[in-house]
Amino acid sequence: MSFDGPPPSIRRAIWDGSIPVQILLNPGESRVFDNTDPFYIQLPRVSYLPLFYPQLYAFFESFLIDKGSVNPAEAWLDFEGVPLKWHWPIGLLYDILTGRDPSYATMDWNSGDEHRLPWTLTLHYSDYPNEHLMRLDSPNALQDSFVNSTKEADYLRNGNSRAVMSLSMADSAKLWESIETHNFDTFWSIADRLITNSAYPIRHIPIKVYLPSAAKVVQKLVPPYLQGHRSLLPPNPSPQSSQSMLRLILFNTGEPTTVGIVLKTMVPELFLSTRANRIAKPVLHGIVIPLNTPLVELMKEASYPDGFLHVAVSMMS
């Protein structure tokens, strides 16, 4: 399948990105305590954890102390004691919770450093952390969360959500099914119309910046191009009225807003310069993004499936 827009190779590389994961059953829920076999899986970065809950239950069911009392829908995962938000993309969770510099990730178990893969998570079926996680309270909860996020991104891009809302029922269903089945061609045949071929001029870039340890998410209105202003007076104003009638007119300078510019605006304490990483690095899809990257181009090529640029901040050692 072909479509107009940014190079498919970039989109494909992002879509195919994955994380090797080792999942352990909580020893307190296992009939063999800490001797339960681990479950290994390669998780797509752009996918969501609940889509893999059925596989996890099928694997660990025989190890559960009382499987008859377990509700598979109440599964949840943690990383080093931190519950994982099921409505956030897997790649984003990895980037913000590990804080790992992608330049140093390794699969060497003998390395002894914090960048070792696979990513080790713990699976639970009890003691749901209600104070930290929303519940998957319906079979469609994940889909509803995804759709709401796509609508929010659409509103930021266009000033309304008409592009998403005008999708046919068939296309809306196919969009979500493409996430469930991890189907690149089906997804971009629909998403491309939302992100790059909208009938509306881009108003703002959908972007969220996640600070280390997921303690804070920063979101602001970010125009795609830098704005300037000029003074405007009505024709032949009187001296008495000129000051009160003075208006400032904003206009696009034509210079694109870059990653460095937006980070210096959103988190100036970590990004002192718009051109050089000195304290922290911006990470997207497991890649350190150059600060001079235009956001409008990044949005078209590297948005997560919900339409947002989810940028994690990794501290430099």
Topology record:
Elements: H1 8-16, E1 18-25, E2 39-44, H2 53-60, E3 76-79, E4 82-83, H3 90-98, E5 119-124, H4 141-158, H5 162-165, H6 169-181, H7 184-195, E6 207-210, E7 217-218, E8 225-232, H8 239-245, E9 247-256, H9 259-266, E10 280-284, E11 287-288, H10 295-302, E12 309-315
Parallel strand pairs: 1-5, 6-12
Antiparallel strand pairs: 1-2, 3-4, 3-5, 6-7, 8-9, 10-11, 10-12
Task: Kindly state the percentage of residues in helix.
Answer: 25-40%
Order of helices and strands: HEEHEEHEHHHHEEEHEHEEHE
Strand order of the largest sheet: 2-1-5-3-4
The overall strand count is 12
Roughly what is the average pLDDT, rounded to an integer? 88
Your description of this structure?
With 317 residues, the protein is an alpha+beta fold. Among the domains are: 14-136, Roll (Ubiquitin-like (UB roll)), CATH 3.10.20; 225-255, no CATH class. The chain is built from ten helices and twelve strands. The protein has a five-stranded mixed sheet. It starts with 7 loop residues before the first helix and ends with a strand. The relative contact order is 0.15.
